[in-house]
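Schema walk-through. Below, the input block comes first and the output block second. Nothing else is stored per chain. Lengths vary across the set, and this one has 161 residues.
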Amino acid sequence: MQIAELIEQAVTGLGYELVDFETSPRARLMRVFIDRPAGFVAPVPAEGEAAAGPAQGGITVEDCANVSNHLTRLFTVENIDYDRLEVSSPGMDRPLKKAADFERFAGKEAQLKLRIPVCNQRNFSGVLGGLKEGSVVLVAEGVEHAFPLDNVEKARLIPKF
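--- output ---
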């Protein structure tokens, strides 16, 4: 089993979503970015108990610690060699990797970088319109664009403050 598949299976088993995974061979570093699955709603705590975390989405320090501890044990059992493991939330400028991400964040502003330019342009910013027939829909400057998903090299949400 590939390490990315192993991490995804472990993170999903703990009730989280694997957003991204990076390695740095020279530093022997592994970075794991987790989020709450789409539609997650934290359970309402019983009277006198503290809330488990944000009501909708969001990752707490405790979430990162739980995943980190689990992955550390898993890597020991699987004999995976590394020097440092970092587990964190994807941040406000969350990368969009999977088709489901483009649907989940429809209506949000995003920045896309294409593999192959369209009209001599590779970078686009606008409001996500979800997916339509395997293409990412992006409304930029009042114009609706549809980019084949396999032509999207990178995509990130644009944080609003």
